[in-house]
Amino acid sequence: MVSNTIKSRTTTEWLSSLPACILLLLVVIFSTSSDIHNQILRVGEHYWAGYYKLRVDPVLPTCNPQADIETQLQQRLAQSTEDDGLGLDLFDAAPVDPNLIRISLENAKQECVVKFSSYEETASRITPTVKAFRSVELFVSSAISVGLVSQKFILIIIILLCAMTATFKRHHIAMRPVVSRLDHYVAGTAQIVGNSLLLISSFAFRELAHSDGSKISYDVEMLHNVWVGGFSALLLTSIINLIKAPKNLKPGGSFSHAGLAMPMYSVMTMITATFFFSSGHTAAIGIYLDKLLDLSDMFLNVGLYVWVGMMLKQTRFASLVLALFKPWKLPPEMLAVLVVILAAIPTAYTGGSGVFVIAAGAVIYHEIRAAGARRNLALAATAMSGSMGVVLRPCLLVVVVAFMNREVTTDQLFGWGIWVFSLSALMFCIVAMTLNRENKIALAPVTDAVPEMLRQFRPLLPYIICMTAVVLFYRHAVNVQLDEFSAARILPVMMLAIMLYEHITKKESLSDDGKISEPHKGIEVCIRTATNQATAEIGALLLLVACSICIGGMIERSGIVELFPSDFDSVWTAMGLIVCALVILGMIMEAFGAVILVSQTIATIAYQAGIDPIHFWMVTLVAFELGYLSPPVALNHLLARQVVGEEEVLKAEAEVANGTFYQRYEKILMPMITMGSVLLIVAFGPLLVAY
Q1: Ordered alpha helix ranges (H), 169-263
Q2: CA 415 from chain center: how many Å?
Q3: Lower Cβ count inside 10 Å, N or C end of the chain?
Q4: Strand 509-510 to strand 9-10: parallel, antiparallel, or no bridges (unpaired)?
Q5: Sign of CA dihedral 173, 175, 177, 182
Q6: In this structure, are residues 615 and 686 in contact, taking their beta carbons and an 8 Å threshold?
Q7: What pLDDT digit, counting tens, does each position of 7-63 carry?
């Protein structure tokens, strides 16, 4: 975007990063306000039993507790006699019984006395202290209501705002980066076409919603208008971006490379639009984008996780963790294995492999490289860093699977996920330590390594205390424990606490020799830098997810799934075909969109073929990861390339230009061999035992 500065802030920071930061903080606040409100209600109930009655002022009853029963009785009898004289009764009625009327009036008077007693008792309990407490509680309750209503709007704005930032920064996910002028014009034209199609479909969906004459709610109408307005702004952004070509582009170029430089979301949009528009369903893409909002909390969590990863990059935490193992003098291959295994834990908390690679891939790559690893090994480890933790608690992807498939629960999936993770770690260790290992295993003596490791642990201790304090605060003050449902709102607070600690203590970044390599920049600069990096990544990823859901809808509507056999003579045949289908889906779709499609299509076929639901979803998760690591798309490698930088990838290719086939393609083959072996074992191992 424009590089002009206002008060030392660029235009991008004022118009993109600052609003994105505010929106992400609002998501954290709104999601936490419900937990805070529950605690406030508990406090109110603790100090004022029956507090729910005190939340609003009682209404004075309209009945008369001093009513004269005999007078009312005579009035009722007189009214009954008058009605009989006018012949108002259409049917013969039993004679009026004065005793029954008297009992009814006495009961009504007693109820009135109770109402007045309750009114006076409630009114007497509403003291100034209760009013002050109640005002706070009702304010939080109102914040919750605002948060629930605005959640969908926040998601749309974040997607489109960050997508515009990714467009200006030329940071959309593609097979190859824009290098030449031809790349720029082809990629830019593809974005204009893709954004135009998104705008046309969203506009058609809005018109379709009004076509039947029924009145739609104001919120729904506003959502339609935000989509249309947002895609209009995104289209205008892409036009400006095409006209204003970067000055550092190489002249010329080839159409084969230029085609690979087209953003994947644009390609997906053009494919789905061709299918739906030719069938007369112009509004279809808009309809599927609207379905995205049904899971708005989940996709907002994806944005929060990316933000957390970028804040992690601004701290010393990752470097300090890896510094624990430097005293052992591990060979690079063993260190890569260790890093990938350790990365499984934050991967589980960030919800998906692609999200984690974007969030922490750059940190992992540079730390492995700093330990002496070759570039191809570091790239392979970076791409794989998000693959093992997707089966561990509290991975968001598993939560989505359990939410959409009642045949399985999160406890069941996470229970078996531990075994799948262990198998993946073992296989990666075997592959890394046997294929193309260039260093001998010569670990440092225990007597030297342990004392140094303990010394390296000391600077890490305050970080652990900060993280523990945040977890304990949420656990005891808000009654929320860190799990798959709360991680997205707790982790940003945890990162902010760590950044605050570093700001107060002015912790500088240290080089391997202990010298200061970079002075501390301050918490404001760190948060601003993290948000600047996060906005483009969030826009690129969420827009790709949205278009991936549209691709899933196209596959479902096209009838391709119906061509898939539904009756199998053998469970082995069924598993083989299902594995192939799942890997292919992993190659062309993003994780969350793929899960939605599989839940609605392939899952039912697998259950009917006699495959256990838990077994099927374990296979699905592993197959997806293999797909994300496999050409021709290899999404995790594209994301790793994006966060590491094209220059590092080109240097890696130059390093092994004269090497063996495996050495030249190690960054692709190592992950594929690992996850391919795991998939075969997970898919067919249980069948060997059962059959």
Answers
A1: 181-211, 218-243, 255-260
A2: 22
A3: C
A4: unpaired
A5: negative
A6: yes
A7: 667 877 888 889 999 999 999 999 888 889 999 999 999 999 989 889 989 999 988
Q: Using one digit for the tens of pLDDT, what is the confidence trace for 460-483?
A: 999 999 999 999 999 998 899 988
Distance CA 670, CA 688 (A): 26
3-state secondary structure 66-110: CCCHHHHHHHHHHHHHHHHHHCCCCCCCCCCCHHHHHHHHHHHHH
The mean predicted confidence, pLDDT, of the chain is 89
In 3D, which of 593, 156, 607, 604 has the Cα closest to residue 400? 593
Q: How far apart are CA 378 and CA 388, in angstroms?
A: 16
Span 73-101, average pLDDT = 67
CA–CA separation, 376 and 659 (whole Å): 12
Tokens (6 digits) for 460: 């890490």
Contact in structure between 575 and 611 (CB atoms under 8 Å): yes
| Chain length of the chain | 691
Above pLDDT 70, what percent of the chain?
94
CA-to-CA distance for 553 and 571, rounded, in angstroms? 28
Q: How far apart are CA 326 and CA 407, in angstroms?
A: 45
pLDDT of residue 88: 47
**What are the C-alpha distances in Å from 4 to residues 9, 14, 163, 531, 534?**
8, 11, 21, 18, 21
pTM of the shown model: 0.86
462 and 468 Cβ atoms separated by less than 8 Å: no
Residue that is written with structure tokens 């249309």 in the block: 228
Beta carbons of 433 and 293 less than 8 angstroms apart: no
Q: Which two tokens stand for residue 657?
A: 């230009």
d(CA 573, CA 553): 27
Chain-centroid distance, C-alpha 536: 16
HSE toward the beta carbon, residue 502, CA cutoff 13 A = 29
Task: Output the six-digit token pair for 238.
Answer: 């892409």
The amino acid occupying position 369 is R
List the Cα angle 60/61/66 in 5-degree steps: 120
Which tens digit of pLDDT belongs to each residue from 245-294?
998 899 988 888 899 999 999 999 999 999 999 999 999 999 999 988 98
Helix H or strand E encompassing 6: strand 5-6
The tokens describing 34, both together, are 């419900």
Per-residue pLDDT band at 356 (split at 50, 70, 90): confident
Q: How far is CA 224 from the centre of its chain?
A: 23
Helix %, strand %, coil % for the chain, to 5? 75, 0, 25
C-alpha to C-alpha distance for 639 and 364, rounded to whole angstroms:
13
Task: Say how far apart CA 273 and CA 547 lie, in whole Å.
Answer: 11
Query: What per-residue string of b and e applies to 189-202 under the rule 16 or more CB within 10 Å gives b?
Result: ebbbbbbbbbbbbb
Token duo for residue 626: 């293999």
485, 492 Cβ separation under 8 angstroms:
no
Distance, in Å, from the CA atom of 533 to the CA atom of 17, rounded to the nearest integer, reads 9
SS3 assignment, position 263: strand
Between CA 655 and CA 375 the distance in angstroms is 8
- The DSSP 8-state label assigned to residue 611 in this structure reads -
Are residues 152 and 144 in contact, defined by beta-carbon separation less than 8 angstroms? no
Q: In 3-state terms, what secondary structure has residue 643?
A: helix
Could you tell me which residues are beta bridge partners of residue 174?
263
CA contacts within 13 A on the Cβ side of 501? 20
- Compute the distance between CA of residue 598 and CA of residue 621 in angstroms, rounded to an integer: 11
pLDDT digits (tens, 9 = 90+) for 224-240: 999 999 999 999 999 99
H helix runs in 481-522, sequence order: 487-505
The SS3 assignment for 311 reads helix
